[in-house]
Amino acid sequence: MRRLSAILAFVLALGVTACATRPAGQSQPLSREVQPEAVLRSLAIDPALEERILALDPTRISDDDVRGTLAAGPTPRIVSVHGGIYPVHLIMESFARFLIGMGYPEAKIRHPGDGRLSHSPYEPSDRIAGTIAWYYEREGMMPMLVAHSQGGIQAVKTLYELAGAFGDRVRVWNPRTDSAEERTSIIDPLTGRSRPVVGLRLGYVSVVGAGGAALLLPNQWMMAGRLRTIPDSVDEFTGYTLGVDMLAWDFSSEASNYRSKGTARVRNVRLPAEYSHVMVAATSHLARDKDMRVWLNAYRPGEANGAPIAQGSADNALWAADVWFSIKKHWTLEAQQLIRAKRALASPSPE
User: Fold this and answer.
1) Helices assigned H by DSSP within 181-311
2) pLDDT tens across 44-93, in order?
3) Residue 351 located in a structural domain
4) DSSP single-letter state for residue 113
5) What distance in Å separates the CA atoms of residue 104 and residue 141, rounded to the nearest whole number?
């Protein structure tokens, strides 16, 4: 009974937090589509910088590559989704400041409407999907999605929105006005052709500590049988679980592993048992440590990276290093793809 009471209290706390979210914005009657090829034609990058970006190996990105090359060129958005109990959003703000400290442009992390550093897990998944489509249409690079705790459930639900599991139409959502646009398709910035929001495919998504009592909430019931199966609306997905995670109901079993529904490449990473479900994304301190930054930038999954090297705390370094590796990789891939598309438009193939 004590265990059941604790679970019910936790769910009630989540539900109270859900009631505190702001109401949805109003629908906008006018279309805000960009013109075909507008993104590529307006892209101004120094040719020498283009060459440096194209020469990068996405799996071996140094601190100099980040600060001297990637940060000077096109950068995809990072959309993060925090957990559900106040003030857990501060943990994902810490992660955002970690990214900024590692050299990621702050403007590509902050929300363009109100400046926040992460999204609420109670924000509807179709709205997050519509926001991702809006970013892609205007910036030419697919955003990355990183989520914690209940936010991880919402991130996977967003993938199901893009896969068409809940309907074949998702409206474009304008984050600057916090409102829906009266359209369910965008102009693909790389091809110049119209395409629906449903069917878009992200390059990289990761979640940590997803599951548990949050699946009992009415807004998450539909994910109870879907959370661990990843649809084809993402190229690379990483699911992080803790050695023992009472809040996510994860007890080191195979049942906690994520799996691909089809073509998505899915990695499962189990973090040390001493990692905290609540604090795992608290990482801003790592970017302030010079020795730690060297170790983080040298880290590569599956290799003998050695123990984290730090003058101060190394808490959560393994999670931060693994996520940072993937962010650098997909940042490079998105920038290279955009530059190649720009060059192809400038030099059309002879008929």
Assistant:
1) 284-287, 290-298
2) 999 999 999 999 999 999 999 999 999 999 999 999 999 987 788 899 99
3) no
4) T
5) 15
Rounded to 5 degrees, φ, ψ at 68 are -95, -15
Instruction: Look up residue 186 and give its two tokens.
Output: 């965008």
153 within a domain of the structure (yes/no): yes
CA distances from 128 to 59, 74, 131, 156 (A): 28, 22, 5, 11
Total tally of structural domains belonging to the chain:
1
- CA dihedral (312, 318, 321, 327) positive or negative: negative
Q: Specify the amino acid at residue 54.
A: L
Q: Which domain holds residue 175?
A: 2-345
Distance CA 274, CA 283 (A): 15
Residue 350 lies in a domain: no
CA-angle at 322, arms to 241 and 65, nearest 5°? 165
Q: Determine contact, residues 318/271, Cβ cutoff 8 Å.
A: yes
The dihedral region occupied by 264, where left means phi > 0, alpha psi between -120 and 50, and beta the remainder, is: beta
CATH code (residue 78): 3.40.50.1820
Quote the pTM value: 0.89
